[in-house]
């Protein structure tokens, strides 16, 4: 399948895809339950292939069977919005208290466009394509639930690669595709720490057991301690987002407990495991010296997103051949955000792609970023994004497997 022909064909879909994206933008839904979003997508993929809906979430797995036998490739579009009150000047802006501030409405439109391109040319496909519409990317592990439900197995074969695109309202030049071999995004998870002391009178702390001082020591010492225990060339980020202790109306009471919550970012499987051991040791030491009990829990962690080298080479070649060398950017470093696409790539292989979609006329270095209530996206990028997803599927499955 000629990739440039796909781009030309996708261009004829542009208005339709923009229309779908803007409709989806006005009905943003949260987490794993997205019935309206699911229904809207189903309306646009009728007749393209076999559809399997999720059991515990409003997912869609669309199976497009190629005319020739061969392996399966998976394309993924996420569906969920954020609990953000939109403050943009778009005439199709959301008014229901949620907002597609991360551009997942564009991902769904690109997934729909790619599905149409692939189904139209399935006579040239040596294998099958599964298109995933996935809820719950924003910290709800929708990818994990879909994998658990076997939504990747709808062709009867485990896919040999997965590809997905993420748009950015800032930070990348418009229409530029970016990726990198190896680690592309961090594991992002929570660390919750609770110190149990004993209540008492603030005048005589030696008679109670103050939980606040060991908590503060844990917060201030943790980053320094990690520096001494973990290789500095494989960074670990721990940033405290909340802390809770005592009562703001009193200063003369020693509370029983104190706690904090932090986000933890790691960039390798090795440090994902090791930071858990090192933090446990460190908190143990503080608990012993102060005679308090410290409970801690690591939770909600995405996996480190590690792109397959071969898959990134394919993306780079296809983008450069199809759109020109200036449309590909080789990211020098990973980014510290997390993504549950990491679970899909860990299970199936493949790679993730970033895609510049800032509004024309704004400086992409200073434009409101994804998740901001002011984030705006240029949806004229949809046709090329759909074409790239389809081109990657055809590139992978266009020839009979050797
Ligand atoms: Zn996102």
Can you put this structure into words, describing what you see?
The structure is a single chain. It is built from ten helices and 16 strands. The protein is an alpha/beta fold and 402 residues long. It has two domains: 3-184 and 304-397, 3-Layer(aba) Sandwich (Aminopeptidase), CATH 3.40.630.10; 187-299, Alpha-Beta Plaits. A hairpin with a 6-residue loop joins strand 1 and strand 2. The longest helix has 22 residues, at 269-290. The mean pLDDT is 97. Bound molecules: zinc ion. Zinc ion is lined by residues 102, 104, 137, 166.
Strand order of the largest sheet: 1-2-4-3-5-16-6-15
Number of domains: 2
At CATH level 2, the architecture of the largest domain is: 3-Layer(aba) Sandwich
Briefly note the structural class of the backbone.
alpha/beta
- Overall mean pLDDT: 97
Shape: elongated
What is the CATH topology classification name of the largest domain?
Aminopeptidase
Q: So how many helices?
A: 10
CATH class annotation of the largest domain:
Alpha Beta
In CATH, the homologous superfamily of the largest domain goes by the name Zn peptidases
Count of strand segments: 16
Report the oligomer: single chain
- List SSEs in N-to-C order: HHHEEEHEHEEEEEHEEEHEEHEHEH
Helix content percent band = 25-40%
Proportion of beta-strand residues: 15-25%
First-last Cα distance:
18 Å
Supply Rg.
Answer: 24 Å
Indicate the low-confidence ranges by residue numbers: none
């Amino acid at each position: 399948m000629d990739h440039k022909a796909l781009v030309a064909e996708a261009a004829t879909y542009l208005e339709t895809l923009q229309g779908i994206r803007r409709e989806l933008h006005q009905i943003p839904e949260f987490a794993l339950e997205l019935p309206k979003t699911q229904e809207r997508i189903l309306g646009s993929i009728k007749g393209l292939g076999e559809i399997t809906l999720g059991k515990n979430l409003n997912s869609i797995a669309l199976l497009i069977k190629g005319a020739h036998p061969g392996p399966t490739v998976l394309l993924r579009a996420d569906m969920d919005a954020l609990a953000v009150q939109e403050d943009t000047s778009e005439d199709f802006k959301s008014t229901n208290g949620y907002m597609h501030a991360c551009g997942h409405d564009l991902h769904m439109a690109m997934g729909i466009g790619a599905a149409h391109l692939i189904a139209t040319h399935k006579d040239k496909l040596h294998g099958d394509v599964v298109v995933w519409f996935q809820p719950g990317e924003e910290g709800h592990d929708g990818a994990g639930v879909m994998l658990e439900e076997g939504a990747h197995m709808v062709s009867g074969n485990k896919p040999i690669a997965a590809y997905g695109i993420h748009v950015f309202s800032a930070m990348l030049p418009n229409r530029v595709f970016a990726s990198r071999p190896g680690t592309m995004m961090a594991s992002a998870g929570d660390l919750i720490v609770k110190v149990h002391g004993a209540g008492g009178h603030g005048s005589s702390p030696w008679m109670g057991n103050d939980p606040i001082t060991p908590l503060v020591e844990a917060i201030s010492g943790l980053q320094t301690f990690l520096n001494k225990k973990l290789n500095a060339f494989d960074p670990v980020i721990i940033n405290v987002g909340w802390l809770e202790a005592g009562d703001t109306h009193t200063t003369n009471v020693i509370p029983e407990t104190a706690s904090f919550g932090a986000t933890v970012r790691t960039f390798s499987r090795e440090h994902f495991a090791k930071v858990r051991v090192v933090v446990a040791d460190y908190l143990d030491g503080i608990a012993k010296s102060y005679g308090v009990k410290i409970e801690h829990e690591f939770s909600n962690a995405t996996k480190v997103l590690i792109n397959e080298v071969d898959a990134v080479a394919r993306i780079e070649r296809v983008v450069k051949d199809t759109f020109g060398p200036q449309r590909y950017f080789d990211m020098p470093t990973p980014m510290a955000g997390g993504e549950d696409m990491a679970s899909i790539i860990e299970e199936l292989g493949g790679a993730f792609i970033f895609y510049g979609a800032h509004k024309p006329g704004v400086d992409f270095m200073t434009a409101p970023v994804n998740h901001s209530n002011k984030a705006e996206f240029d949806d004229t990028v949809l046709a090329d994004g759909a074409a790239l997803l389809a081109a990657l599927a055809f590139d992978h499955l266009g020839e009979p497997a050797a």
